[in-house]
Amino acid sequence: MRVTGAMFYYYFVCRRKLWLFAHDLRYEDTDENVVLGRLLDQSSYERETKHIMIDGTVNVDFIQDWTILHEVKKSRSIEEASIWQAKYYLYFLQERGIEIKKAILDYPKLRKRQKVALTQNDRATIQCTLEDIEKIITLRTAPDIIEQPICRKCAYFEYCYI
Ligand code: SF4
């Protein structure tokens, strides 16, 4: 199973969101938060070559001098998911012989950065997470609604609650 960066990220945000996304229920194109994120992406780090698709599966924001992987984020509201997404990218690249040791989460609007590294324990966690993602995606029906504050900003809010 091909697990994209978005799928890995959604696993830490909401298992239902992961399932909906993996089953091609997409609302992101019109969601205000997603559109804002896209605009931020287009207007930041313009000198870098952005959106590097690797092995047809993960789409990395950019890799500075092939040594530091960067992910550009709008806010720190779901930072744990962003950190794991960056760790997954490092893992994915290393599994394919591309030894990039460090990632940085960039928050241009906040003028903040967060360094991310991949440890041996992280590698084990990622392997378990990939197995769990497969189990979730192959469920016959979507996991339950989580009823959390983040739902209000989720692209699937109307689908889940209205
Ligand atoms: S609205 Fe809430 S429950 Fe529904 S997919 Fe989004 S985060 Fe999950």
Helix and strand arrangement:
Layout: H1 5-13, H2 15-22, H3 32-43, E1 52-54, E2 58-60, E3 62-64, E4 68-72, H4 79-95, E5 102-107, E6 112-117, H5 120-137, H6 157-161
Parallel strand pairs: 4-5
Antiparallel strand pairs: 1-2, 3-4, 5-6
Helix pairs in contact: 1-2, 1-4
Residues 14, 16-17, 20, 145-146, 150-151, 154, 156-157, 160 line the site of iron/sulfur cluster.
Features:
alpha+beta, Lambda Exonuclease, Chain A, 43% helix, two-stranded antiparallel ribbon, binds iron/sulfur cluster, 6 helices
Structure description:
This protein is an alpha+beta fold. The chain has one domain (5-161): Alpha-Beta Complex (Lambda Exonuclease, Chain A), CATH 3.90.320.10. Helices cover 43% and strands 16% of the residues. It contains six helices and six strands; from the N terminus they run αααββββαββαα. It has helices at 5-13, 15-22, 32-43, 79-95, 120-137, 157-161; strands spanning 52-54, 58-60, 62-64, 68-72, 102-107, 112-117. It has a four-stranded mixed sheet with strand order 3-4-5-6, covered by helices on one side. Helix 4 (79-95) links the parallel strand 4 and strand 5 (102-107). Helix 1 runs antiparallel to helix 2 (15-22) and helix 1 runs antiparallel to helix 4 (79-95). It is globular. The termini are far apart. The mean pLDDT is 89. It binds iron/sulfur cluster (SF4). Iron/sulfur cluster binds at residues 14, 16-17, 20, 145-146, 150-151, 154, 156-157, 160.
